[in-house]
Fold D-aminoacyl-tRNA deacylase.
Amino acid sequence: MIAVIQRVSESSVKINGKIKGEIGKGLLVLLGIEEADGEEDIDWLSRKIVNMRIFNDENGVMNESLLNVDGDILLISQFTLHASTKKGNRPSYIKAAKPDVAVPLYEKFIAAIESELDKKVQTGEFGADMKVSLVNDGPVTIIVDTRDRK
């Protein structure tokens, strides 16, 4: 799994012109799932995201987690994070999981994040044409790949 984590002061996702999910202070998480991902990836990444200390403390130092600042998460599925650009100019998405694998893992990831955060997570809709808006706070953008945890 690959996650692009952006610290935001606000973020929203629209589908067909209607807001599907929105948050204030928190994290916009773009999540890419590949065929080889499983429960261990979900457990590790959900804990990592919720506990990552990327919010400012009273001294302006990134030392607080999402839990400390009572922030929210907007989670968006994004298969293009697994694009291979080695050959030619058209990216290949062969590593991205097909919906029959990705959807159950995405739903389990939502449940894991909600359990870690102890609140509901805002989401987009898997496979939909989504319009994502954000105000990146900092800016702070971090990329985490579960393959790098070992």
Observations:
- The mean pLDDT is 96.
